[in-house]
Amino acid sequence: MRTLVHAYREAVRMATLAECTEIEHGTFATDEDLRLMAEHGTYVDPQAGLVIENYLANKAKFLDIGNYTEAGFPATEGALPLDHELIRRALQIPGLKVVFGTDAMAGAHGRNAEKLIDQVRDGGQNPMAALVSANSLAAESMGLEHEIGSIAPGMEADIIALDGDPLRDITAVRRVVFVMKGGQVYKNRAAWNGRQ
Fold first, then answer.
1. What does pLDDT average to over the chain?
2. Which listed site, 3, 13, 39, 124, has its alpha carbon 20 to 30 Å from 175?
């Protein structure tokens, strides 16, 4: 059975030893924890960027809901560099499967491009590796690698075309001009500018 858990600190090691499939966040994981995950084939989804930045950008909307308090927001802001540092360390561990994820919540939906940009700009991930983590590696992490995540015969090949080369400028992922979903083509007419 696949299991996905949100884990921090020593819970990262415990979840890995319990054979969980994927660990979300992983904040405060040690290098030893990350190496153990690589040995066990455990995926890690260190979620810097979008999730934290969304809380901060929408502070007024979250404030005083549950545990979102004025006193707690400095800790949220302080988590951002910790998460970036975790991504940088995770990328140095041979064999560790660093997968794309957003932990999206209200306000973050439709903004996945910002997470890709963050992984490259602030986490130091190679642009191609970031794109793979969001496509074929993400499909693999869900056990769907024979259905989605790649363009190949028999696959559900949804395609996104960008205005620009994300390998040279990762912010190109913000400029979607064409989407093919389930064989249906959608064009961003404002960005299309007569392209065919």
1. 90
2. 124
